[in-house]
């Protein structure tokens, strides 16, 4: 059993929430001022996830890179694997904002999409 203090980032108040974890169970959550904070703390203790933003090389584009993001938060443990795939990827121009550039990246079930348009040279 382990205890952990988590700062809630759901709203600007930033409550310090104490969670006690027992394996795959979250047994105690205290310090939250609302239900959303309890849900955030449980999820952060048991399955922490993050949205990822980065950029991918563009071949034949007006710009050498296109900014990208994951369509959903990915497990925190997979961040470096996903970043590695993104850094090695190259896409051909033109790229449309919202276009899926990497489907099911690193078997996370999450796609990586462009967050801007890059036209061809
Ligand atoms: S627990 Fe509720 S009130 Fe506290 S920071 Fe999180 S969302 Fe805001």
Concise description?
18% of the residues lie in helices and 37% in strands. By secondary structure, it is an alpha+beta fold.
Tell me what you see in this structure:
The chain is an alpha+beta fold and 121 residues long. The chain folds into two domains: 2-47, no CATH class; 53-114, CPE0013-like fold, CATH 3.10.530.10. It has two helices and ten strands. It has helices at 35-46, 79-88; strands at 2-7, 16-22, 25-30, 49-50, 53-59, 65-70, 74-75, 90-92, 100-102, 112-114. The protein has a five-stranded mixed beta sheet with strand order 8-5-6-10-9. A three-stranded antiparallel beta sheet has the order 1-2-3, covered by helices on one side. Strands 4-7 form a two-stranded antiparallel ribbon. β2 (16-22) and β3 form a beta hairpin. The longest helix has 12 residues, at 35-46. The mean pLDDT is 95. The structure holds iron/sulfur cluster. Iron/sulfur cluster binds at residues 8, 10-11, 13-15, 32-34, 36-37.
List descriptors.
single chain, 121 residues, alpha+beta, CPE0013-like fold, 2 domains, five-stranded mixed sheet, 2 helices, elongated, binds iron/sulfur cluster
Structural class by secondary-structure content: alpha+beta
| Mean of pLDDT | 95
Q: What name does the CATH topology of the largest domain carry?
A: CPE0013-like fold
Regions with little confidence, pLDDT below 50 for 5+ residues: none
Beta fraction: 35-45%
User: Largest sheet at a glance?
Assistant: 5 strands, mixed
Report Rg.
Answer: 18 Å
Q: Which second-level CATH architecture of the largest domain applies?
A: Roll
Spatial sequence of strands, sheet with the most strands: 8-5-6-10-9
According to DSSP, the number of beta strands is 10
SSE pattern: EEEHEEEEHEEE
Bound molecules: iron/sulfur cluster
Q: What is the CATH level 1 assignment of the largest domain?
A: Alpha Beta
When the domains are counted, the total is 2
């Amino acid at each position: 059993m382990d205890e952990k203090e988590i700062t809630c980032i759901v709203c600007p108040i930033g409550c310090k929430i104490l969670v006690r974890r027992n394996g795959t169970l979250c047994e105690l959550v205290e310090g939250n001022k609302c239900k959303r904070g309890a849900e955030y703390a449980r999820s952060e203790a048991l399955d922490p996830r993050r949205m990822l933003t980065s950029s991918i090389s563009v071949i034949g584009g007006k710009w050498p890179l296109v900014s990208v993001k994951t369509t959903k938060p990915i497990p925190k443990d997979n961040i470096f694997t996903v970043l590695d795939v993104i850094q090695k990827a190259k896409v051909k121009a033109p790229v449309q904002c919202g276009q899926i550039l990497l489907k099911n990246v690193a078997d996370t079930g999450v796609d990586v999409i462009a967050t801007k348009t890059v036209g061809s040279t």
